[in-house]
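#structure-requests
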Amino acid sequence: MINWKEDYTIGVEHIDEQHRRLFEIAGRAYQVMRDDVSIDKYDQIVAILQELKEYTVYHFQSEEEYMQSIGYKKFLSHKVEHNDFIEKINSIDLEKVDEEQDKFILELLDFIVNWIDKHILGMDKMIK
């Protein structure tokens, strides 16, 4: 299961709340992966991808505005990581997703969990 841990708290409440929401999205992806009943998960996967795209754009914008408001010195390198994440999500080939749904959802989960873990603990913790 994908669970929020207090280690992920950076001390900026609105950003911490947004990070919790990213964990909720990852948790839904995990539930889809674990669903042995559904044969065709494509619509669920696409819905999760769409929510992830929309929410990360919102979250990254919010986080970047906060970093600028405090004069965060590593803003540009941080923004590059955000842009790379969005580019990766936008480059997903939905035809391939449809062909290999279980493989894709596992790869998506691995990407999301590793990115969130590395980014929050590595980059976002430095904001505060």
